[in-house]
Amino acid sequence: MKPLKRMSLKDVVIRKLHDYIAEHGLQPGDRFLNEKEIVHLVGASRTVVREALKAMEAVGVVRIKPGDGVFVNESSVHHLVNQFSFRWSRDRTRMLELLETRTMLELSAIELIVMRRCENQASPIAVDFREIDANLEQMERAIQLKKSLVEDDIEFHRTLFRMTGNRTFYELSEVITQYFNEVRERRISEADGYGSTFVEHARIVQLLKQSDAEGAKKAMIDHLSPLKEMIANGR
Hints:
Blueprint: H1 9-23, H2 35-42, H3 46-58, E1 62-65, E2 69-72, H4 76-89, H5 92-118, H6 130-144, H7 150-162, H8 167-177, H9 181-189, H10 191-209, H11 213-232
Antiparallel strand pairs: 1-2
Helix pairs in contact: 1-3, 5-8, 5-11, 6-7, 6-10, 10-11
C-alpha cells in the first residue's frame, strides 16, 4: 500500500477557506475575505494564499475581480456540499444526526403535500401525482428485470420533495439526502430490502392520495428506520 500523500500548504489553506465559507453561511455573490485578511486567518504567506485563491477560482468556488476583491461564486454551494459529503459520511454520529434531519424533512414534505391537497376541499387537485406514479411503475419494471433500484429510490424522494411546491425546501432536501447514497445502496442490495422498498413507496403514495398525513408519516418512518440501524451498526 502506498503511503498517504501529505496535504500541501496550499491545500490546507483551501480547506480552511472552504470551512470559513460554510461556517459563516456565505452566499453566492457575497464579498469574501481580502488577501491580507486571509493571510492573517490561515497564517500562510501571500504567495500560498494567492495560489489557493487561484485554485478555488479554477473550480468555481470564488470569483476574483481585479481591483474589486474576491466574491463567493454561484457554484460554491454545490462544490462545498461535495466536500462535506465525503467528510461527514465517515462520521457515524454526524450521519445519525443527518438522518434525524432528513426524517424531519421527509415528514414535513408529507404534511405540505397533504396541506396542498386539502386547501381546496371541493377540488383537491393542487398536487400532481403523475410523476411519482410513473416512478413507481419504473421501479416495478426494474424489479421484474432484476435491475438496481437505487436511482429509482433517489428519484422517488426527489419527486416527493418537488410535490411540496416549495423550491427552497426541495433544494435543502438535496443537500441532506445525498449523504445517504452509499447506505441506500447497501440497504436496497439486501434481499429483504430489494422488494420492500417498492412496497413501502407504494404505501406512502397511497396514503398521500387519501390525504392521510399521519398514516403516510408513520409509513415514512418505517421506511427510513433500516437506515438508522445500518448507520448505528456501521454496516
